[in-house]
Design a protein that fits this description.
375 residues, alpha+beta, 57% helix, 14% strand
Length: 375
């Protein structure tokens, strides 16, 4: 039985008819890349399954159960099984094969977990939040900036099981990079766990750099000549997306510190030094996110201050024009009361005199307001 067929059996889909269909498909279809971020073309959640010995990939074609038993019997090498959004039924057989704790299995299937590292006997269970920057031509009040997913990792003495949730975060390139470094991969499953953690944190730094460009653009727009007219919704949207990024990055600090400092059975001292480096990178990402949060608060406050200043300027202009208009309104109101005995009412030059007085008074008020910057 092929390893692919055996995986279908382990995930509860390995009936004889199903295996025959898989065999026919394997003969009929061209070779496919099982590390593709989508679900496996085999029709299950299995993305890839490989056995490694001394850091070298063992060619596929061996029964999965036999491969696990051989690794455990001879205590050399390990099995790396990759899954993408498995169902309860698909994961049940795998959990039984690798003796995974039910609580960890429930977290791995349901997703939406907080980044953490837990130990269940000799098995280590780690949860990482993956992030991806969403490209956009122009930032708006509804633009999606950060997309998140999850990677759950089960690490034992002789196996690694990765469960990925989300549309991004494929581990195919990471697997290829690890396979090119046999010395590091020969350090066992803990080396895979470190590579995944390092890959996730590097993505954090990459996303942080991209978000900084959006923040710089918003800052430029706010402090432009017409900054008060800028849309404040973009600032709030960036703060919401930054909060999403913070939820992925900040909680991972304590788990990485535990992996780097606390004695853990499946993580040897030679690997812990690498986790300290990952922890330093994560700390830098956390500092940048905190700085961005403060900067966005300052930009928002500056924008609100600009809006207040603009409103005050508008009110001063309105008040100044109202004062100018009040002069002719008052004079016309007085001479519009139709009394018979009023000065200059029947004088030939009365109209011209009143218009001259009104124009002169309005001109004096206008120049005064203009000189004081109200108009």
């Amino acid at each position: 039985m092929s390893m692919a067929g055996n995986l279908r059996k382990v995930t509860g889909l390995g009936r004889v008819g199903g295996l025959r269909r898989v065999a026919r498909l394997a003969r009929r279809r061209p070779r496919v890349d099982l590390s593709h971020p989508a679900r496996s073309p085999l029709g299950t959640s299995v993305v890839n399954c490989v056995t490694y010995r001394d850091g070298v990939r063992i060619p596929a074609g061996t029964d999965l159960v036999d491969a696990v038993e051989r690794v455990r019997k001879h205590r050399d090498g390990f099995v790396w099984l990759g899954l993408h959004e498995p169902t309860d039924r698909e994961f049940a057989g795998i959990a039984e094969l690798f003796d995974l704790h039910p609580l960890a299995v429930e977290d791995a299937v349901e997703a939406h977990q907080r980044p953490k590292v837990e130990r269940y006997g000799e098995t280590l269970f780690a949860v990482f939040k993956t992030v991806c920057y969403v490209e956009h031509e122009e930032l708006t009040a509804t633009s999606e900036v950060v997309d998140t997913g999850e990677i759950m990792v089960f690490v034992g003495r002789d196996f690694v099981v990765t469960v990925r949730h989300g549309r991004h975060g494929s581990l195919g390139p990471l697997r290829e990079e690890l396979e090119s470094n046999a010395g590091q991969l020969a350090k066992g499953p803990a080396a895979v766990l470190h590579a995944i953690a390092d890959h996730v944190v590097d993505d954090y730094l990459s996303v942080v750099d991209s978000v900084q460009e959006d923040i710089d653009q918003v800052e430029t727009d706010v402090f432009a000549e017409n900054g008060a007219r800028a849309d404040p919704g973009r600032i709030y949207q960036l703060k919401r997306e930054l909060l999403e990024l913070k939820r992925a990055v900040v909680p991972l600090g304590r788990p990485l510190e535990d992996l780097a400092t606390r004695p853990i059975q499946v993580v040897g001292p030679e690997i812990q030094a690498y986790f300290r480096d990952v922890s330093d990178h994560l700390h830098r990402a956390k500092e940048q996110i905190a700085a961005f949060d403060e900067l966005l608060n300052s930009i928002l406050q500056a924008h609100l201050a600009q809006v207040t200043v603009a409103q005050n300027e508008d009110m001063r202009k309105i008040t100044a024009w109202a004062a100018v208009i009040a002069v002719p309104t008052m004079v016309c109101g007085v001479y519009g009361m139709n009394f018979d005995h009023m000065p200059e009412l029947h004088w030939r030059f009365g109209y011209g005199l009143m218009m001259g007085v009104i124009s002169l008074a309005c001109l004096v008020l206008y120049r005064g307001f203009r000189h004081n910057g109200w108009l």
